[in-house]
Specification:
Blueprint lengths: L2 E7 L4 E7 L4 E5 L5 H15 L2 E6 L5 H4 L2 H8 L3 E3 L6 H11 L11 E3 L5 E4 L2 E7 L8 E5 L4 E5 L2 E2 L2 E2 L9 H12 L7 E4 L5 E2 H7 L4 H4 L18
Parallel strand pairs: 3-4, 4-5, 5-6, 10-13
Antiparallel strand pairs: 1-2, 2-3, 7-8, 8-9, 9-10, 11-12, 13-14
């Protein structure tokens, strides 16, 4: 049995997740808890469930997803798994928080590199890293294939996709990541994004307006239409 406890943190309403497959151990995905009160709320949940964190998994390094990483690593002595391409994002992310008048997240936490396709065995789960650059260059979605669960960070939302107007973002990479790496997964796969409600791959195929080239119905063939001429013909 797989267990998922979502938590909403900080002013950007970031969604963090406590996830486990066996009793007593868990992983923390994008712990964006801001300040002592929110971090205490997370630790109280862990105590109620009798859980000890085994690792932190990051989908990317934007400030709203990493506020709690440094203090949680210090408290529990656990690894932080992140794609190495995300290292350039961390200083920029801290500056983003500063410009918004927020406390600057610690960015000196120790990271363990993950690569596309790598599978981590943690807390009774097999969590597969799917590289999805676009929102950030080292964005990763985490898939528990046997359970049909996908943590998409800020790559894919219910009815939307991640912003690409930040430094280091790339719209073309974002669309390719979604269309080539995510949207072809089993339609029953449940997605748990970094903001907003959960959804499924099938639902996003059918109705996500940002993926219209994929979800538009195919037009019927009309034999009376004039042929399309290619330059040079």
């Amino acid at each position: 049995m797989f267990n998922i406890r979502p938590l909403t943190f900080n002013l950007l309403q970031e969604r963090s997740y406590v996830v486990w497959g066996t009793p007593g151990r868990c992983v923390l995905i994008d712990p964006g808890c801001y300040g002592n009160a929110e971090r205490q709320g997370l630790e109280e949940l862990l105590a109620r469930e009798g859980l000890t964190p085994e690792a932190i998994l990051l989908t990317h390094g934007h400030f709203d997803h990493i506020f709690g990483v440094e203090p949680l690593q210090e408290r529990y002595g656990i690894p932080v798994f992140m794609h190495p391409a995300e290292q350039v994002v961390l200083p920029y992310s801290a500056d983003m928080a500063r410009r918004l008048g927020l406390d600057v997240p610690g960015i000196r936490f120790r990271t363990t590199d993950v690569e596309d396709g790598q599978v981590l065995t943690l807390a009774g789960m097999q969590l597969e890293a799917i590289a999805t650059p676009g929102h950030t260059p080292g964005g990763v979605c985490w898939l528990e294939r046997s359970a049909g669960i996908l943590f998409t960070g800020d790559t894919l939302f219910a009815g939307s996709i991640g912003r690409t107007d930040f430094r280091f973002s790339d719209y073309d990479d974002e669309i390719r990541s979604i269309m080539e790496r995510l949207i072809l997964l089993d339609p029953a796969t449940r997605i748990f994004p970094g903001h907003g409600p959960a959804s499924t791959i099938g639902q996003e195929r059918r109705s996500n307006p940002f993926l219209e080239p994929f979800n538009e119905p195919e037009e019927p063939f009309d034999p009376d239409l004039e042929p399309i001429l290619i330059r040079g013909e």
